[in-house]
């Protein structure tokens, strides 16, 4: 075991050299910093690190040519660099073939989301498909981005290309990212118009809507804490009133009361036309939003607003308690 003490010039200047071989001493201020003292009196700072299963010793510099503080400050960077994998240089590959690797190894999406992504790629990035990925320039990227209609889609494609080329650097197919110095596409992001006062007006407007099915569906947008597509496609067989659950999700007390008051005479909780569930009642929602004084409000705005207010909990009962607490607070202020 190395002898430990605080490295300082007085002690290091007066360290005795061993009669043969070398001695090792260790700094107490930066325990990862050590020093060899050879029988010839040469004193060398070094660090040791187990990298990929092998013990590696990295020389920093000789004392007194290197200052003690410089040696200490060099330790974190040297250890971090030691853990990096050596760069791999591979053969040329087309953007299309590399894209297939990227989608397989890096993209984790559901089937529908993955299909939409591939469709967008085929539509907007096809001009790059036959080019070798290592030969694609910033100008090529800018030309592709400039041809995309709509700033939101253009921005998403630019972010995707940045991620693709970062992965290409990691895997050794390119040396630098051509998107690095391209200015980001400016976006006019939509400001969601809902606040607590607006939510109270929305609740009152929903309560006055004449159609029972739509009224209940719109209230479930508030009680359910899930996106509208999941609310409208609720099936009775997926509900467990004994445990206050729906497809593994806890149901709020208000949701349970609302659902138990609905007629359970079909497959869907909120039936629509042609034996299907409710799809997208935009006209009815627009009327409710106008009555609430928020004409630009979307159904997704309600979900986003409530999820920002909700305190997350990993425990199911705690999460359900948080849902109930938030709804009680909202409706108590609405009285």
Q: Short description, anyone?
A:
The protein is of the alpha+beta class and 335 residues long. The protein has 13 helices and eight strands. A hairpin with a 4-residue loop joins strand 6 and strand 7.
Description:
With 335 residues, the protein is of the alpha+beta class. The protein folds into 3 domains: 3-83, Double Stranded RNA Binding Domain (2-Layer Sandwich), CATH 3.30.160.390; 95-170; 196-334. 45% of the residues lie in helices and 12% in strands. The protein is built from 13 helices and 8 strands. The chain has helices at 9-13, 68-83, 95-105, 111-124, 138-146, 151-170, 196-207, 212-223, 228-232, 253-260, 282-291, 299-309, 316-334; strands spanning 3-5, 22-27, 34-38, 43-51, 54-63, 239-240, 245-246, 249-250. A 5-stranded mixed sheet has the order 1-2-3-4-5. Strand 2 (22-27) and strand 3 (34-38) form a beta hairpin. Helix 7 (196-207) crosses helix 13 (316-334) and helix 8 runs antiparallel to helix 10. The longest helix is centred in the middle third of the chain and has 20 residues, at 151-170. The radius of gyration is 32 Å and the shape is elongated. The relative contact order is 0.07. The model has no long low-confidence stretch (mean pLDDT 89).
């Amino acid at each position: 075991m190395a002898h430990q003490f605080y490295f300082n010039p007085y002690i290091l200047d007066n360290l005795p050299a061993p009669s043969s071989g070398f001695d090792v001493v260790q700094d107490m201020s930066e325990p990862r910093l050590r020093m060899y003292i050879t029988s010839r009196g040469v004193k060398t700072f070094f660090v040791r690190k187990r990298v990929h299963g092998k013990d590696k010793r990295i020389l920093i510099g000789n004392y007194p040519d290197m200052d003690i503080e410089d040696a200490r400050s060099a330790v974190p960077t040297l250890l971090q660099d030691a853990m990096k994998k050596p760069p791999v240089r591979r053969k040329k590959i087309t953007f299309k073939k590399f894209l297939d690797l990227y989608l397989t190894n890096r993209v984790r999406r559901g089937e529908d989301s993955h299909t939409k992504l591939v469709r967008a790629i085929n539509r907007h990035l096809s001009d790059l498909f036959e080019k070798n990925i290592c030969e694609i320039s910033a100008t090529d990227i800018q030309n592709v981005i400039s041809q995309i209609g709509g700033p939101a889609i253009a921005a998403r494609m630019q972010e995707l290309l940045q991620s693709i080329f970062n992965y290409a650097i990691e895997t050794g197919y390119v040396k630098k990212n051509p998107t690095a110095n391209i200015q980001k596409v400016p976006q006019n992001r939509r400001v969601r118009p809902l606040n607590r006062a607006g939510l109270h007006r929305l609740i009152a407007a929903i309560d006055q809507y004449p159609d029972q099915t739509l009224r209940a569906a719109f209230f479930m947008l508030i009680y359910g804490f899930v996106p509208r597509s999941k609310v409208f496609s609720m099936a009775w067989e997926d509900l467990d009133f004994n445990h206050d659950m729906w497809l593994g999700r806890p149901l709020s007390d208000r949701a349970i009361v609302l659902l138990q008051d609905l007629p359970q005479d079909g497959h869907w909780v909120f039936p629509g036309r042609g034996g299907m569930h409710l799809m997208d009642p935009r006209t009815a929602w627009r009327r409710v939003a106008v009555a609430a004084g928020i004409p630009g409000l979307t159904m997704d705005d309600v979900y986003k607003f409530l999820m920002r207010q909700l305190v997350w909990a990993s425990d199911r009962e705690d999460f359900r308690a948080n849902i109930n607490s938030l709804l009680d607070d909202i409706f108590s202020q609405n009285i």
